[in-house]
Amino acid sequence: MTIDTISARTVVFHELGGPDVLTIENLELPALGPRDVLVRIEALGLNRAEALFRAGTYYYQPTLPSSRLGYEASGVVAAVGAEVTEYVVGQEVSTGPNIEMSAAGVYAERVVLPVESVVPRPAGLDAVTGAASWLTYSTAYGGMLETGGLRPGDHVLITAASSGVGIAALQTAARIGAIPIAVTRTGEKRQHLLDNGAAHVLAAADTDVVAETRRITGGVGAQVVFDAVGGPGLAELSTAAAHDGTIVVYGWLDQRPMAMPMNWPLRVHGYANMELSATAAGRRRVNHWIASGIRDGVLRPHVGAVFDGLDSIRDAHRLMESNAHTGKIVVKL
């Protein structure tokens, strides 16, 4: 099937900047290749990486003008290439892995993606919760379990705990029997974090996070630190880790240079999802982890706000940058 005459409303930006640089244009879809899938998008899940990409502060730069945007969406397969056997028309799917945003960003009514960028949507998830699942849980699973080696009984210190990935990390750690210590800016979201698996909640604005972590762990420290912030504060945060512990840095909310921790022996890993999603085996492990967790009810995607239609994308990005929400921001098409 060829779809080179079909166009779709698509979010693009022609210059770097804040949410106001986002515009909506009708773009012609490319022809469907033999290993491509056409997805009709039902909902978009916003990620902090997309705000950084839009502003030019992500780890790779957008191709301007007319860069697209977006990693994560849920939708329905509308057509498949001649060699695609993994999916059928009408199947509910999500997107997320192996996407280069400039060329294939998913903020659109329809997208053409290689089959490696599409995953089955877990049974029982509607479009909105489906758009709030894959990247958050795959980051938590891949970062803490596969890279960090988190085990039952381990303490794990989770920064930015009220974010989408933070909530997923709390639930993931609790599911394997680890002991999650949530770090958030204030105590305002304390009960919400406890409800999502946190064993302890530390408000960074009025708590010595390192000292309190040491107290909670009986002086030992956390076996794993799962950090979204980075920056010069990483060196101090590392002193909350146990002897021979592991720090996994998966985000850089503080984009100042990081100071190398000196409390060795200590393992420091940078984590990016492409490490896990680049292979079929990695995607399979993530998909089974998420689907089984949804099925047993321990993994509960948390949607903090829902916006209606592509025309609300600027407002959705403004909320994301305000940090006033918990969980995932979703735009429903």
Automatic annotation (TrEMBL):
Gene3D superfamilies: Medium-chain alcohol dehydrogenases, catalytic domain, NAD(P)-binding Rossmann-like Domain. InterPro entries: ADH-like_C, ADH-like_N, ER, GroES-like_sf, NAD(P)-bd_dom_sf. Transmembrane segments: none annotated. Pfam families: ADH_N, ADH_zinc_N. The keyword Oxidoreductase applies. GO terms for molecular function: NADPH binding; oxidoreductase activity, acting on NAD(P)H. The keyword Magnesium does not apply. Signal peptide: none annotated. Keywords: NADP, Oxidoreductase. It comes from the Bacteria. PANTHER family: QUINONE OXIDOREDUCTASE PIG3-RELATED, ZINC-CONTAINING ALCOHOL DEHYDROGENASE. This is NADPH:quinone reductase. The lineage of its organism: Bacteria, Bacillati, Actinomycetota, Actinomycetes, Mycobacteriales.
